[in-house]
């Protein structure tokens, strides 16, 4: 089922200046009506989306390497999602699950209890946004432990609410001008954040773990309710943990009675080639958080964890007017249907292979490409000065803009804004992926010549 009888052509097309005249007119209306506090990556107005293509109101077609920031992983018009939502729309749109119940909420919880990592009995609570999931995980951990402190990590991103801003590392734009923030949030280094201080990755990992232990001891281990970490740090720059780092954190949390919370909001639901990125590390959170791709574009988030933790909260202590909305639950059941045959997970792994084949030669050809990293369809390129190793946000921004003008939607991320992240939908056609990657590769080479660093050599 699609929004039009005519399928959307799965090919890049740029027929006007970007943005085009209709998008410019609509953007002017936006400026008159919408708070300027909302930023925008690319000021084009989308008319249709299907497969790996976004089509704007001027008829331009963009290859989608963003997926609505990892939300439309199964595509923006997946027929299984559409069918489930259409059926629910014909019944009712809302009752509030805390007032009267509906079975789709329970079915979503049951699927997550079965599939979220962890060989223990689980319960799930549904909410609307990722930030809600994070905050409710902290509420649950505090209720279960009777403790207050929360341990988070450098380069972390956990949301835009007041508590999750305290947990998020990046100041601009997320935290600037919005303080003071809730206390009892402490931050530790990761092995990758210490990597530049040593040539030995194992030494960096050992030092990071030692710092975590020292922090917990100094603050008092009996004061920490939760330790929260992303299995791949998203907004921080798609940072993959050093081998063994998450497993060691898992052991530290267990030893100190701290609830280990794994934030899979961006990395979960098949994005990395497994249902959950923590599977690569062989670890399970006491609580695992999902959102973004969970409901294929509708707002839904989940907190899934050990039964004794999830049931530690008093009745009425969890909830929300829109928590587990029936349309969003129906969409999630459609997403689960889409993953059933394993093809989407295979697609994510194929995307990684193809992307690395296309882009990894740049590590030798363009000195400013400092790293290519990630897993599955969650990949990124970091840009640095080859001499000083300082971040190059100017170069990342220029490459990003170049891609946009050529009809490829990419996103910048990273604590220093020097990383381009790739989040194509898992349904993207192979030829379309190749075309988008070719545009990106050409943009990197061209912009690196225009904005060279001192000592840069383009081969």
What does this structure look like?
The protein is an alpha/beta fold. It contains 15 helices and 15 strands. Strands 4-10-9-8-7-5-6 form a seven-stranded mixed β-sheet, with helices on both faces. It has a four-stranded mixed β-sheet with strand order 1-2-3-13. It has a four-stranded antiparallel β-sheet with strand order 11-12-15-14. Strand 8, helix 9 and strand 9 form a beta-alpha-beta unit. Helix 4 packs parallel to helix 11, helix 7 runs parallel beside helix 8 and helix 12 packs parallel to helix 15.
Low-confidence stretches: 455-459
Structural class: alpha/beta
Helix count equals 15
Our measurement of the CA-to-CA distance between the termini, rounded to an integer number of angstroms, reads 48 Å
Oligomer: single chain
The arrangement of helices and strands along the chain is HEEEHHHEHEHEHEHEHEEHHHHEEHEEEH
**Helix content, binned percent:** 25-40%
| Average of per-residue pLDDT values | 94
Total number of beta strands: 15
Q: Measured on Cα atoms, how large is the radius of gyration?
A: 22 Å
Main-sheet strand order equals: 4-10-9-8-7-5-6
Strand content: 15-25%
* Largest pleated sheet: 7 strands, mixed
Principal-axes shape call: globular
């Amino acid at each position: 089922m699609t929004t039009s009888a005519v399928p959307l052509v799965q090919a890049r097309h740029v027929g006007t200046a970007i943005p085009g005249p209709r998008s410019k007119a609509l953007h002017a209306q936006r400026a008159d009506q919408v708070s300027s506090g909302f930023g925008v990556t690319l000021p084009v107005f989308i008319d249709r989306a299907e497969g790996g293509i976004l089509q704007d109101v001027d008829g331009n077609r963009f290859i989608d390497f963003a997926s609505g920031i990892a939300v439309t992983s199964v595509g923006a018009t997946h027929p299984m999602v559409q069918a489930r939502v259409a059926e629910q729309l014909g019944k009712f749109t809302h009752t509030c699950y805390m007032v009267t119940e509906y079975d789709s909420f329970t079915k979503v919880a049951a699927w997550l209890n079965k599939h979220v990592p962890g060989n223990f009995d689980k319960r799930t609570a549904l909410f609307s946004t990722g930030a809600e999931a994070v905050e409710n995980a902290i509420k649950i951990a505090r209720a279960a432990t009777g403790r207050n402190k929360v341990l988070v990590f450098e380069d972390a991103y956990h949301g835009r609410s007041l508590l999750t801003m305290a947990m998020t590392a990046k100041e601009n734009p997320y935290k600037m001008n919005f303080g003071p923030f809730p206390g009892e949030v402490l931050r530790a280094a990761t092995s990758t954040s210490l990597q530049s201080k040593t040539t030995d990755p194992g030494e960096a990992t050992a030092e990071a773990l030692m710092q975590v232990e020292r922090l917990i001891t100094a603050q008092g281990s009996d004061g920490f309710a939760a330790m929260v970490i992303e299995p791949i740090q998203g907004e921080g720059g798609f940072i993959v943990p050093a081998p063994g780092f998450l497993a060691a954190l898992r052991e530290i949390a267990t030893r100190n009675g701290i609830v280990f919370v794994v934030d899979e909001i961006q990395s979960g639901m098949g994005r990395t080639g497994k249902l959950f990125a923590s599977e690569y590390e062989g670890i399970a959170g006491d609580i695992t958080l999902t959102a973004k791709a969970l409901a294929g574009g509708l707002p839904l988030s989940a907190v899934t964890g050990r039964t004794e933790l999830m049931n530690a909260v008093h009745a009425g202590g969890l909830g929300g007017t829109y928590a587990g909305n029936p349309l969003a639950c129906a969409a999630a059941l459609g997403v689960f249907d889409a993953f059933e045959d394993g093809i989407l997970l295979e697609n994510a792994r194929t995307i990684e292979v193809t992307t690395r084949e296309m882009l990894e030669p740049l590590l030798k050809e363009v000195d400013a490409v400092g790293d290519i990293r990630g897993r599955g369809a969650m990949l990124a390129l970091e840009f640095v000065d080859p001499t000083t190793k300082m971040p190059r946000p100017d170069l990342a921004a220029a490459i990003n803009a170049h891609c946009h003008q050529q009809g490829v939607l990419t996103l910048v991320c990273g604590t220093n804004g020097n990383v381009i992240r790739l989040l194509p939908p898992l349904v993207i056609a192979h030829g379309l992926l190749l075309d988008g990657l070719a545009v990106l590769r050409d943009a990197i080479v061209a912009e690196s010549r225009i904005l060279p660093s001192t000592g840069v050599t383009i081969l």
